Amino acid sequence: MGASFTDSLRLVAGNAKPTSLPTGSSPGFKGDKKAALKVLAKTGPKLADLQERLFAAGRTGDKRRILMVLQGMDTSGKGGTIKHVTGMLSPQGLSIASFKAPTLEERSHDFLWRVRRALPEPGLIGVFDRSHYEDVLIVRVHELAPRSTWYSRYESINNFEADLAEDGVTVIKCFLHVSPEVQRARLLARLDDPTKYWKYNPADVDERGFWSEYAAAYDDALTRCSTDAAPWFVIPSDHKWYRNLAVSQLLLEHLESLDLKWPRPDFDADSEKLRLRAPHVDPIEPAGKHPATAKRAGKARKRQQVKGSAVPGRAEASVPPGSNGRPSAALAAKKRRGSASI
């Protein structure tokens, strides 16, 4: 491989027509499909390790997380990218959201409302299948809002993404760039395979009639909203193998840039080993309790006491403090005498 995928795919400032870039090239990679598959095989374990580090950090107060935004024309491979790239990750550390036409409730709020609700929590890798950019793309192409409305959203998006970056979110925005010829071929392939009929939507053919309008909308969205805090990456997507490789390497490079370390424990490992190897002790009040378990042990004793004194007339069965949950010998004898007199 040559230059990093981050440098090779980042939208260059001053390029007013990102959609004019090649769709079948392979920036940052000199190999073929076979070589790409070998790289992907080695990428999986690296991604898994870094994802676990990120997840662990998020569980110990670190606010950092990843948000990958996938945008592109129909058949550009948003779903395929999610399948092949996130398939190398643990579902536990993933947050995936898909944005379709807004619901009635969503339309009653600001256009970013539903997006904020879907943001990944600290320690997670979030993926958006389409995103807030739909509100400056399809809304513009089909005139679903006045120009003054969608045009003002560029600034709102930039401010929103800047706030995300400041809050510890690494935003990776990927424009999956496919040619109209390849889109046609992929749509025809769906019609040739009955198992793919469910993926075909006749409306996709209608949308092809707006190709130039969508291209203009993407050009403006990408150039106006590619910032230092959240740059756009243009992914040539005519070749699925390269698309999957490029997105996976972008994710890997951004995770590596976080320099993730394993969180430091709030306990002494050697001391904990000694406690675990010690003879069995009552779990309600273990010898040499760690401060983190003292509170739980106290609650357990209270539950024992409440349980023992809950039946009227049987107060003698309550567990005295300091008894480790076991009735004293005197109480046991008293109970036996009582039983014998009945």
Task: Give structural notes.
With 342 residues, this protein is of the alpha/beta class. It has 2 domains: 253 residues, P-loop containing nucleotide triphosphate hydrolases (Rossmann fold, 3-Layer(aba) Sandwich), CATH 3.40.50.300; 71 residues, no CATH class. It is 48% helix and 9% strand. The protein contains 14 helices and 5 strands. Strands 2-3-1-4-5 form a 5-stranded parallel beta sheet, sandwiched between helices. Helix 2 packs parallel to helix 11 and helix 3 packs across helix 11. It is globular and about 75 Å long.
Helix and strand arrangement:
Blueprint: H1 5-9, H2 33-58, E1 65-72, H3 78-85, E2 94-98, H4 104-107, H5 113-117, E3 125-129, H6 138-141, H7 147-166, E4 169-177, H8 180-192, H9 202-208, H10 211-224, E5 232-236, H11 240-257, H12 269-277, H13 291-308, H14 329-340
Parallel strand pairs: 1-3, 1-4, 2-3, 4-5
Helix pairs in contact: 2-11, 3-11
- Give the integer mean of the pLDDT values: 88
* Series of H and E elements: HHEHEHHEHHEHHHEHHHH
In CATH's first tier, which class of the largest domain applies?
Alpha Beta
What's the number of helices? 14
What structural class do you assign from the helix and strand content? alpha/beta
What's the CATH superfamily of the largest domain, by name?
P-loop containing nucleotide triphosphate hydrolases
How many angstroms separate the termini?
Answer: 89 Å
Report the radius of gyration as a whole number of Å.
29 Å
Morphology call: globular
The largest β sheet comes out as: 5 strands, parallel
Please tell me the total number of domains.
2
Oligomer: single chain
**Uncertain residue segments:** 310-323
Number of strands: 5
Strand content: 5-15%
- Side by side, the strands of the main sheet go 2-3-1-4-5
